[in-house]
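I had to read the description of the data format several times before I understood it. The format is easy to grasp once an entry is in front of the reader. For illustration, here is how one protein appears when written out as sequence plus structure tokens:
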Amino acid sequence: MSRVRLESGWLALALFALVACVPRADTAQLTTVTAPPTETLAATMPPSETAVPTIVPTPDEPRTLVIWIPDQLLPANDETLNALLENEINEFITVEDGVQVEIRRKTSQDVGGVMSTLRAASIVAPGALPDLTLLRRGSVIDAVENGLIQPLEGRIASSVIADLFPSALRLGRAEDQLYGLPYLLDLYLYAYRDAESETPDLWTFDAVLNRGQTLAVPTIRASGMADILWLQYLAAAGGLPEDGVLELESGAVSEVLSFYEAMANSQLIAPVTFDYSAPMDYMEQLANGSVDTGIVNTAILRYLREADPPLQYAAVPTRSGEPVTLVDGWMWVIVTPNAEQQALAGRFLNWMMDSGRHGEYAQAIAMPPAQRSSLRRWQIDGIDNSLLIELLTEALPTQPEVDANNSARALQTAWLDVISGRLSAAEAARAALEP
């Protein structure tokens, strides 16, 4: 048995914050988990809201696996997730002789976040880097380009790779190698409430119009076009741009803009749509019913569980109603260049990707797991798992390849002009299609 007692960890934290050039407030206290052969287990509570329980290392200084967890995936105030992760780690160390695990909670973005700290520490304090962390697709590409993470080839069990959805596996690949192991997926859905009209079999543009419910859509995007516009345009155009060059198809442009013109004319676009850059911006209005329907992503499902009236979920509306979505997600990546630590990290990842453990954590955080076998264990009220399987099989890629494309920006501008009522769909389409 092991003995658990409390350590403040302030000195280790202060030193780490100094060398990694990030404020102390952005990093949670250290969690150390170890499994000495003889000692008695006694748990204590941490002294502050952000502290994580500490299990003290044994005198023989066991090997340590350092893991950074983004706070979106391990909120300090979520007792269920913290207890679940601690239990999974404790089980792991019982099968790994002389190993301890340190968990550091990191902010997901901005100064002190995972990527900014990886960049800073790789230059001034490489010894402060973790062995493992979790990144989203854009950060994985950035990390590969900057040499911050290691390929996963040979570290992950073939059974795990075979169980991943194809759309998830694509997220982790860069430069023809696997760098990210998909763990939790973030995909777009349409959230709605029961109405007097019958629920359609296919969520076409016409079906949404006929129900007459207000719609919230994230519209702000710094470059390229908004994700939902990209998805709905691609679904109407019937294909992806060739060689990363987007040539607007006039029929698809007209179809999408005409839908939003009809919604705007019927006053069914949520009034502050222009303030929204992500579904999280309006999740409170959606949860309390002040907005009837909205585009959501699975990253916020856990905040919508108590929505009143309850929400149902379907595929994002398109011209034909064909179920499609865009997929992003959180992926495990190996940071350490040390071969022995990489091998230990690989064993930890295979342990965490056991379908039972994977599914249990995904269920607790209400994000779909990346493995088919784990998704079969995952149940969220209002979501049909068969729909998720179809979406994850047929998902379209996100649009980094056209971010700087003038055509993408032209369509984004036309879309905003239509939603705001500045131009008709026909006028906006002509402006977007001008050479």
Summary: The radius of gyration is 23 Å. Confidence is low (pLDDT under 50) at residues 1-59. Residues 235 and 318 are 7 Å apart (CA to CA).
